Each structure stands twice: as C-alpha cells, then as structure tokens.
Amino acid sequence: MAKLIYKPMLSLDKNQLREQIDKAFVGDSSKQQQPATKGFKPLKILRNTCLILALWFIGSGLFIHVKAYAAQFLLTQAWQATEQGKPQKPWPWADTWPVIKLQFPSLNTQQIVLAGDSGQALAFGPGLSSASVAPGQAGTMVISGHRDTHFSVLQHLNPSETIMLENAQGEQFNYQIVNIEVIDINRQQVQQTDYQRLLLVTCYPFEQQHSDTSLRYVIEALPIENNQQQGYIASNQPSKYSGSRPVHF
C-alpha cells in the first residue's frame, strides 16, 4: 500500500495570519495612497491664490479700459445724431448725453464730452461740470476725466498748444494753453471768472493707481483771440480779478 506522508503546515500566529489575509484581499498597506492631509502644501495654495487674484485685478483693469474706449465709439454715433438735430443717448439706459466734442490737434486726438462729471459718466468719457458755462460764454468751463483712460493724454500737452471745442450746433471754439498746475483741492478752490476760460482737470500723479488723492492736474486755456488775461487757476485767496469768485467743481 502506498503510504500517505503528512507534512504539517508552518504554524502562523493570529497576527501573521491576519496580515496574510489582508495582503491577499486588500493589498500591501505599505503601498496604499497616503492620506490627503500628508499631501497638503500651503505654499502652493498660497501661490495659486495670488495668481488668481493677480489675474482678476489685471482683468478688471483691462475691462475698465475696454469699456472706456468702446464707449467713445457709441458716443461718436450719438454725437453725429446730435449734430443733425436729433439728440440721442449713447445707449438706452444712459443718464447722460454728449454735449461737446473735444480735440487736441497736437496729439491728433478727439473725444466726446458728456453732460455731468459724476463717477458713472466719467467711466465712459470726459464730463462737463454742471457748474460750468457753455463754450463762448463768460466764465469758467471745467471738463474732467480719469487720468488712466481718456485724460491720460493731458500729461502730453504743453503750454501754447491749441485745444478745440465744438458744440452741437457745429460752432468751433479755439483755446490756447496758458498755464499748467497741480493743485490740492482740500486747500484750494477753483476760481470762477468773468471772462472765458477752459480748465481740463484730472487726478494726479498719473502713474498712481489708487484714487484717494486730493491732487489735481489742471490745464488752463484761454480763447485764442483773448488770451492776454490770465488769473489763478485755484487759490485760497481772493482773485486779482474783481469779477472772480471761488466755486467748487
């Protein structure tokens, strides 16, 4: 008869047996994926957050510029309709309208000026202050604009250069720059006058990004046929002209 040979299995304790079962059905625990908390990288998250914020700020800045210059296209169309005796808002929900065409011949640049100088109006173009007189009338006319969009061109203008205005009736008014100053609106007041004067105003300095500045870059221009008069752009003292009086713009 054949003899059966019995070979006993190697004895395994409970812990070893459990480990063998885990390897067979679950896999080697040493090769399992590390918990997510061990892969947490705060510097990487911080870097990505800064990148997202930077892109957002850049996008916002580009949007402001695109909106400002795209609006001038719509304003030009509205101005052409206004010149034809059909006053027209640049877009249906606008609370302002074009009143003057402003030209800088030395820079080959022209812009459409809106009624009013509220923040909403200035986002789309230069604005004519409600305290201003109309072109050709005695007194001070003030046109304001943002330094980083439409009125960034002011830094390239020089004394004796010409500024041209055209009203809705097609009348043209030529002015010559006679003075350029930086004033502090917290300490100085723009002077109203009894003679024709044009002031172009924007925040200063031009390269500064934040808007909380009291400094204003002011260009004073007088009608070319009557530019012998020149007073204070702004002052904390009475004007030397008897007909002048302080006024806030």
Structure commentary:
- With 249 residues, this protein is of the alpha+beta class.
- The protein has one domain: Sortase, Chain: A.
- Helix content is 23%, strand content 27%.
- The chain is built from 3 helices and 11 strands.
- It has helices at 14-25, 42-83, 119-122; strands at 98-104, 109-115, 127-128, 139-144, 162-167, 172-184, 189-192, 196-203, 215-223, 234-235, 245-246.
- The strands form 2 sheets. Strands 1-2-3-4-8-9-6-5 form an 8-stranded mixed beta barrel. Strands 10-7-11 form a 3-stranded antiparallel beta sheet, with no helix packed on it.
- Strand 1 (98-104) and strand 2 form a beta hairpin.
- The chain is elongated.
- The relative contact order is 0.10.
Give a brief description.
The protein has 249 residues and is α+β, with helices and mostly antiparallel strands. The chain has a single domain (60-246), classed as Sortase (Sortase, Chain: A, Beta Barrel).
